[in-house]
Amino acid sequence: MKRSAIGLLGKGYTISQERFEEYKKRIPLPLIQLVLTNYCSHGCWYCNQGSPYILDKSSVIDSMGESAYIAEVLKLAGQCTCEYLLFGGEPLDHPSCVNITTALLERGHTVKFQTNGTRVARLDDLAAEHPEWRNRIKFQPSFHIGDYLLKKDGITRITRYIQEYLPRMARCGFKIEMIVVLTPHALKDPQLEQLLDIVLKRVETMDVDFEYRLVEYIGEMNGLQYPAAFTAGETARINYLRQKYQRLLDGKNAEELNQVNNELLLQGMPCFNMTRLIVVDARGNLRRCKTNAGILGQTAMCASDSIAPARCPSPVCTCASMGFGSSLQPHGISLGEYLRELCEESPQPQTA
Fold first, then answer.
1. Which residue of 21, 213, 232, 250 has the fewest CB atoms within a 10 Å radius of its CB?
2. 312 with 269: CB under 8 angstroms?
3. What torsion, rounded to 10 degrees, do the Cα atoms 319, 320, 321, 322 define?
4. Cis status, amide bond into 146, omega within 30 of 0
């Protein structure tokens, strides 16, 4: 029995078996995330994925050897065409990044870089030599307004980002999905919308496919745990900014955005990304979502394994914190459509 999209969280609802089978067929690309290094020169205070204090940029790539590493991460795809997300730290800081990218593209996969944008010139030659690959490469730069605005030279850093790094990314000709982390401080700053608008005006002068990914801050600040600590006013502002700046998926409307946030895929909700997501960290550990699953080169695993929706173990959506919006978004399934198909938890989708 279908229910309203609103007010179902934590009440044991899932999708029907019939709809699950349909969604399985529509999932286009499994996602394999490669942490190339834990080093990042930026050191944003809220980032848990990299640090400038990790002076050693090496990782499992160096202990295994570049060729062996490439062979093993290609095995993870199995017979599937996958999207590889290269991140860290700053992935372009690792010397093997370009060679790894080339190997993945030669095998027909797509590649996305989650980057601070400062080292994208390393890809200039690849972009010039292989224009046929441009539709299979994306930048997902992090525009750290929430961090910059707290620094004395914040506006200078933002200006440099817009005037120098953004044009460098556009010059490569790859799609840009810019992540903006909406911290409590950023939400209160009157310059926030002005800066987002400046970026859009700059992009209008470039020949590039661009969109924002506005993500709410997830983590601890001043003894409060976010996103649960966001006030009603802050949540309303987050939704307003998403409506204004993000391309909305089909089925999302203002009412849903105002009443439902990234809390949708919480503990107990069926998640598709977890079973189509493989993470290789900088030490070579394999994970599916937050679950340890083995070691690269020692554990047999591939993205073409049979799938079933898994119960999300996280109190907040990890996928949202990585800029996906929700675990459904990279699979072309709209949030509104998913909500409309919610039904009482009986029967359960069967494990494939």
1. 232
2. yes
3. 50
4. no
- In the numeric block, the tokens 């797509």 are attached to 110
Through-space distance between the first and last CA atoms of the chain, rounded to whole angstroms: 24
Nearest alpha-carbon partner for 135 in 180, 172, 81, 89: 172
C-beta of residue 61 within 8 angstroms of C-beta of residue 91? no
Prediction pTM value: 0.78
Matching residue, tokens 């539709």:
135
AA identity, residue 317: C
Give the count of beta carbons closer than 10 Å to the beta carbon of residue 182.
22
Q: Hey, what are 26's tokens?
A: 């529509």
Report the length, in residues, of the chain. Answer: 352
Query: Tens of pLDDT along 150-190?
Result: 777 888 888 888 999 999 999 999 999 998 988 898 999 98
H or E stretch covering 156 = helix 154-160
Residue type for position 271: C
Q: Taking the chain (352 residues) in consecutive chunks of 10 residues, what is each chunk's mean pLDDT?
A: 36 56 63 88 63 63 96 91 89 94 96 91 94 94 81 83 92 92 90 92 92 83 85 88 68 41 45 70 84 86 66 58 46 54 44 42
**Where along the chain do its domains lie?**
13-342
CATH number for the region 13-342 comes to 3.20.20
CA distances (Å), origin 264, targets 66, 222, 292, 305, 349: 40, 25, 24, 26, 19
Residue entry with tokens 């006030």: 231
Q: How far apart are CA 278 and CA 170, in angstroms?
A: 29
Pair of tokens at residue 327:
């675990």
